[in-house]
Amino acid sequence: MVSLIAHLVTATELTTIESNAIMAGRGGAPSRSISSGRPAHWRARACGAREKEGLSWWLCRVARQVDPRARRPATLSRRKTARCVSRAHAPPASALPRGQRLRHVRGVGPRVQRRPCHCPHAPEMLVPPEMMAAQSKLVYQMNKYYSERVAARKAQIAKTIHEVCRIVQDVLKEVELQEPRFISSLTDYNGRFDGLEVVSPHEFEIVIYLNQMGVLNFVDDGSLPGCAVLKLSDGRKRSMSLWVEFITASGYLSARKIRSRFQTLVAQACDKCSYRDCVKMIAETTEVKLRIRERYIVQITPAFKCAGLWPRSAAHWPLPAIPWPHPNIVAEVKTEGFDLLSKECLALQGKNSAMEGDAWVLNFFEAENRLLQGGCRRKCLSILKTIRDRHLDLPGNPVTGYHMKTLLLYECEKHPREHEWDEAAIGDRINGIFLQLISSLQCRRCPHYFLPHVDLFKGKSPTALENAAKQVWRLTREMLTNSRAFEKL
Fold it and tell me: Where is the Mab-21-like nucleotidyltransferase domain (predicted)?
């Protein structure tokens, strides 16, 4: 307490001496100020007031050293205190170049520079210059990685797609000649093929859309995770359906029966098409898979497009507490609908369900692509897939491109603002997705984005997931600690 009183007395004496010196001016004469045109003692009063503010702040600081619960004097607002501190340490504005305003903040350390933000609602942030330099290096490394590694991957995949689709189109023409109900929907739209999905640089999936689903009802009661059934409408005769021989006695359109018939037709078409020397059917599976030139695997899946519908199992989306995506985009996605695929469902394996053979797998491929439009989301996905192909193509295939796509959608919910997906933030987003991936691999669970009760890691080996978690952690640690990590990736 004695030291506190000594500090107070010293501060009071110093303030009094400085105020008297200012009041004295030039011999105490009430001279005029050239800059303001006011008497010098008016300016002295203003300076004295500022000194009182500075003294009040100083007294408060000393009092807090004795009692941390001591409050700031009521006569001194927070804004005035901040102004007093900044004036005490900031250089004059005339000494700085235009557009480079510096401000010193107590407790932060060196002077920091304001980082520009293009969002009108975002708070103004203060970022140290060294962090700005590191961020610029990261952006440069990411752009270089994209222009070299990602662009090369894209060019190679585009060339492969052109070759693969030409062979598949020829096979599907033979299928259509044998069975007109299986009409090929694989069409080239300026280099983009409708219904084609790239699983990996050597594996693709092509969806063939079937006709006349109108006489069937879509049933999604939640009893089949990730799946639904198609049932003949009430009052409709079995003969009114184009797929009459594939409807069960209970009135359900069997996905397995249609897939089995389609598999037989494709096997026959492979023997008749002009590319029969380089395309073979893959046996020991109920899926329709082709091996092309002994290098590429193509899965052809019959499907129905459900436009204007939205499944009950995904009715929770979007979450009301999350501002992403925009309501207009949500309406567009739900209007576009989803697909029902005739393929094996991993979620039903081991359940011995009587409906397993009749179930159709829910697919949101188009909806996911629509949500990833805007900002650098698509660019981020391309970088993630490239890293996956180069470093995470592990035994057991624990991490796929679809896992990356799913975690990217979750990252969009965590960072809903558009300015969080510009060029400068793409490195932070990728680091966040890799941290999510580590957590998912360690927990051995990766929920589907639209169907959270469906685990995308189901059927994966625990050992493969553990090894993948270690490898992802090595990559993440390298990206977080080495600013030039992308030169090695």
Answer: 193-374
